Amino acid sequence: MLLRGRMLSHLIFLLLIHAANAIVLRSSGRWILDASTGQRVKLRCANWAGHQEASIPEGLQHQPAANIAQWLSTNRFNCVRLTFSIDMALGNPNQRVSDSFTAAASAAGVSTSSMQNLYTQAVSKNSWLSSATTRVVAPGAAVQVMETGGGLPPPDNAGNSRFFDTNNWLSGLRSMASFAQSHPNVIGISLRNELRATGSQDGNSHADWYNFVTQGARAVREGNSNLLVVVGGVNYALDLRFIYNEMLDRNVFGDKLVWEFHNYQWSGIGSTCASHQKMMGDRAGYLLVQNKTYMGPLFLSEFGWAQNNPSAAENTYVSCLV
After folding, report:
1. 192, 149 Cβ separation under 8 angstroms
2. Taking the CB of residue 278, how many other CB atoms lie within 10 A of it?
3. Which residue range forms the structural domain that includes residue 224?
4. In whole angstroms, what is the distance from residue 303 CA to residue 312 CA?
5. Residues 236, 240, 243, CA angle at the centre, nearest 5°?
6. Is residue 227 a part of any domain in this protein?
7. What is the pTM (predicted TM-score) of this model?
8. Closest Cα partner for 89 from 149, 26, 131, 17?
């Protein structure tokens, strides 16, 4: 079900435990903790796209959702990073999956019959889709973190933010956070995936970043104060160095702040393991240093390299990362 991507993607993380056993999490120092017991929780997540035109998790025409969740659990993942879109967050919460597939045809540039064929295939593997709405999340998953993705505000930018509307973004965060109140397996929401500036954006010592991240955090907290608030840096979430000199206002986040960063072989890591490790420490790893105002849990939510005939540099990247 791989369709042409929407401009704005958002992500949820599903911890693979039964919803009845779902827990509220909080941050403390460099750790994520079970808020009721104080036990440390470590997230090992797989990425799963769900923000495309049909507004449901991809690949359900190939496998039942329960099989996918079981495969993830068997392979020692305990959560899923699942994308969603602001269009879905602000759209009709009762839109049936069948109607979503029909509506997706135009945006995907394919025929309605092609989309309905995909829908029929998905229902053949997942019968529950026939009566589901687009806000249904794959059964068998348990803890979810929702996250947004794309360019940096303002909305009238001619580059990567040309489809972005700040008010819709904040309303979407608030809406999905509120939605999570009735889904106890939802543990948090990230503000926006891979923030990157275009042109003159954020050329003011990251004042734009501080401003909009703070607004986003407030929107999430207004919708659901139980959720973790996951914050990534600039330049495609590769860089959080500026936090060293100017910390966010922690009062906005309470005990829910979690940092995230991305790390790819092609993202300027240097040619040796030593240079790679230094880069990770300089850009984000320092956030784990004890007794600093910026200290908080740090989540590596994306990494990768070319796995077909990897080069020597790519092999070095892998061995250094793991």
Report:
1. yes
2. 14
3. 9-321
4. 17
5. 145
6. yes
7. 0.86
8. 149
Residue 4: inside a domain, yes or no? no
Residue 1 lies inside a defined structural domain of this protein: no
177, exposed or middle or buried, with CB in 10 Å at 0-12, 13-18, 19+?
Answer: buried
CA distances to 32, 58, 290 from 194, rounded to whole Å, are 22, 21, 26
Range from 39-48, 98-107, 170-179, 194-203 carrying the lowest mean pLDDT: 194-203
Please state the rounded mean pLDDT for residues 256-284.
91
Structural tokens at position 207? 């004042």
3-state secondary structure of 214: helix
What is the three-class DSSP state of 260? strand
Average pLDDT over the chain, rounded to an integer: 83
Q: Which two tokens mark 120?
A: 């029929």
Could you report the per-residue pLDDT of 218-248, keeping only the tens digit for each? 999 999 999 999 999 999 999 999 999 999 9
Closest to 186 (Cα-Cα) out of 19, 299, 302:
19
The domain tally of the chain equals 1
- The tokens describing 171, both together, are 């309303």
Lowest mean pLDDT among 8-17, 79-88, 99-108, 205-214: 8-17
Comparing CA positions, the residue from 233, 224, 236 lying closest to residue 285 is 233
Report H helices in 185-306: 207-223, 250-253, 273-283
Is 260 contained in some domain? yes
pLDDT bin (cut points 50, 70, 90) of residue 50 is confident
Here the CATH number for the domain that contains residue 249 is: 3.20.20.80
> What pLDDT, on a 0 to 100 scale, did the predictor assign at position 13?
59
